[in-house]
Specification:
Layout: H1 2-8, H2 20-47
């Protein structure tokens, strides 16, 4: 799995910064999706 992932992304373990930036970016995407979901839920509650 790790080898396939390395082929897909240049910022993998072979990249100049190692695997950490990739993990951090992925983490921020999850946080963003989560916040967007919460925000949409809150807006729907207010509109009702």
């Amino acid at each position: 799995v790790a080898e396939r992932y390395a082929l897909k992304s240049p910022m993998s373990a072979e990249g100049p910064f190692g695997p950490k930036p990739l993990i951090k970016a992925h983490y921020w995407v999850i946080v963003y999706q989560f916040l967007k979901f919460i925000f949409n839920n809150a807006r729907n509650q207010l509109e009702r």
